[in-house]
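Example record

The entry below shows one chain as it appears in the dataset: sequence first, then structure tokens.
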Amino acid sequence: MKKLVYNLLLITVFAPAFGFGQQTIESIKGKELFGDMKARHIGPALMSGRINDMEVHPTNSRIIYAGTAGGGVWKSSDAGATFNSLFDEHCQSIGAVELDPNNPDNVIYVGTGETWTRNSVSIGCGLFKSTDGGANWNKIGFEKSERIARVIVNPNNSQEIYVGVLGALWGDSDERGVYKSNDGGSSWEKLLYLDAKTGCADLTIDPTDPNILYASMWEFRRTGWSFESGGNNSALYKSIDGGKTWNKIHNGFPSGNLGRLAIAVAPSNPNVLYTAIEAEEDARKGLYKSNDAGESWEQLNNDFGITVRPFYFSRIVVDPKNEDVVVKGGLTGSISRDGGKTFKNLGNMHSDIHDIAFNINNSDVMYVGTDGGVYRTWDGGTTMEIVQNLPLSQFYHISVDDAKPYNVYGGLQDNGSWYGPSSSPGGVEAKDWNSVGFGDGFRVLKHPTKNVIYSEMQGAANVWRYDTDKMLLKTIQPLPISEETKLRFNWNAPMAVSVNQPERFYMGSQFLHKSEDMGNTWEIISPDLTTNDPTKQNQEDSGGLSKDNSGAENHTTIFTIAESSLDEKVIWVGTDDGNVQITQNGGKTWTNTTPNIPGLPENTWCYHIEASVFNKGTAYAVFDGHTQNDMKPYAYKTTDFGKTWSAIITDDVEGFARNIQEDYVNPDLLFLGTEFGLFITIDGGKNWKKFTNNMPAAAVHFIDLQKTTNDLVMGTHGRGVIIIDDISPLREINSELLNKNIHFFDTPIATINEKSSFSGSFGNETEFVGSSKPSSMQLKYFLKKRHTFGKMTLEIHDTNGNLIYELTPGKSKGINIVNWNFSRKIPKIAKGKTFTFGGFTAPKVAAGNYVAVLKKGKDTYEHPFELAYDKDSPLSKEDRDLKNSTTLQLYDMTQDLAYLVYEIDEIISSAEQTGDKKMVLKLNDLKNQLVITTGDNYVGSAEPQLREKMTTLYSKVAASYDKPTKSELENLALISSKFEEAKVTFSKLKTKYLKKQTVELKTFEEFLKAK
């Protein structure tokens, strides 16, 4: 190939279109557009996430399922040592998992929508069924149920299925109560329904008589500022005719209204029932027991561990073999071995116990679902161990810094605040994460120029400033300065660091607080920016029958703060009661722009404001209406400081939205996080595509974009931190590009990776290890159509047209990503009895200009790119030249030796056929000096010969970042001398033999190309 002239070649040579139909941004599907772009998960899992339901296989004690609050369904086949995800394509909030007892290996039901109805709970999307062990799922109803509490399959008839639907949390809904299918889920009949505010919180069946059912009905309602548990409709029902008729079974129950009730049948004695009752009178709350199948009840226990937070801890589980062993969910989890009279705490583990499952064969083995993941016990609950490979962490917020590799910071539901690397040698392990806060963690922000981290816990109860270099910790939250003014901080209190003044730090209550000295002193720079509605400020009365003023319902508060990077005096503030306020003079005056937003329901929570980096009058606002029972997504854009707003959401978007991220290069490229995943637009919001490549349908609570790497970093509420590396190709996509047969995306100058480290996997065999960013360079190109017929190749050439490396091309429609690790192919190694490890080293190419040559059928596309050395490399040009020349000298020498041994073997074969024993003896004697001809690769190792010495030295020089040492150069001289002697000896023998016999030998080039 002729030497390329880059001024003429530019970036890519495009062939004429093949004549396929025009492709538009609207018509192309997300999978086709995003192609090989894939998300990677970095966890963490050492602080896992909330578990809603635990299920054990009815006949195989090693198989366990976990239904999670926001991370989908996970299955273990090794008694809980490790778990694998089964449900990534569907909504990740799970209420119930049920195995068909008649076909448990294949038929699985998943009812979506978490049932522990805290303020941050997600929503479901219906009932699903798998008939192939979870490989594929079909939705079989209840799309509007929002949350499903129980699924039960009749053990005598798999076609009969009962479903307990808890229903909507934030508003009225008719899809509630108890349902039955007689045809395996094809159709449903409503059996028990009370009203639009009352749902089925628990449902169970008599294992000896499937016509006997028990249903707990619960009246409840949550708003953004309150929670109400209990009412006249809360009750416990029994049916003895398969759900046709129902009767209350309250003999012995407390008087007055009831709240949430649990129900459990003792599998070993179905006449024994247990319920936990939330009642009006505190003394009458607690655990009740029936010994006559619900005809009468007796209160057994009123301990705090039994009665605490009944809406959140309502699960009772009875030992399958012993009716007197009862476990109750709670802050610590309580176990009774005397039929519920007395309880003791379960062993040391994460607080907030939601479900317990017993091993079917050994009741000392239990699996416990908590707010911090799954625990196992082997001794009846005395000691607990956490399952370490469930990456279910529930982030409220994340941010990134500019370190190399950059760090990700974030706060977790009930699991504190943390930061960890986006990449790490050997993968991102549990040990890579660092704690920077307690309690429920929310925003975590790094100081722009100092090793100082800001973090907080719920409701700004503590806001910390942590100097990580000096290990100095200080609380800095704004405090009231007058008795008349009570500060109202959201549970997820907003913080912001100025991009214009590094020492400036903002926080929001109902006022905007500003500090110019990293939180040492504060000033209020706004009036009350909320609606200040007093009817939404009675949190002390929240909870219903059980007061629950944790602070989670604090309302009429500021929720998001955004200072313009283009003008420090332009500050945006969004509130949880629907206001979008702006100041253009640093807080002296404020304007509420909410009246200018078309189509937005009143008081809809402003969840995030993104100030544009392109124009100081441009901003994006995302609104979340789900706490008003409005599940629609809302996102708007203004270009005139909020005087006018336009909607940028289309019907393509699923789930209510929480966050938006503007690209830093292309203003039309936007990323939207919703309750059901990530959506991307490349045309400013006219069309949105869901990103699903290794990206589960998890709730994306926050998105950040790392400017140096162009990585999109997402904090999900159930699947930890998820990263899409280098989104820059999306910046180039437009209607014109979509109709080019092939388009190479811009390839930035790639730094040759010469770094290495020691990274072992000891101790993490059962841990989750997050995947790291590829260290290779990547060639990225767009294919208009998938390549299916004909030859397609991708090669790396130098600028003189010499072949450097052959790559396997991506052939998918859309974006293709091909990795190259800066290397040539490994050298051809001389054949011997053993292999030599040094021969597996591929030498790095030198920095400079190269060309990717893609051949597709008869068309050729060429894409130049440049490689550079790390600017921090300690090597001089002379050192680098010596390293490269020595590496190539050894590389060539190794292949020369391989060819020499090949020639020896061919002549030996010929000499053996002609009976020239003397020549065979001499050649074998020479070969024995060149390669190992005895022993094996392990216990029978032989004395290293020239090949081993040569490849060992080659590997040392090629794999090192440094120039060869004096000792290595001296060793090279010795090896070279020995090799020259061998070549002289062989030349004489070869010449002598070929005078007598003809031997067909491959040329050196033919030998190298041969397999």
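Notes for this example: The longest helix spans residues 877-914. Residues 1-20 have pLDDT under 50 and may be disordered.
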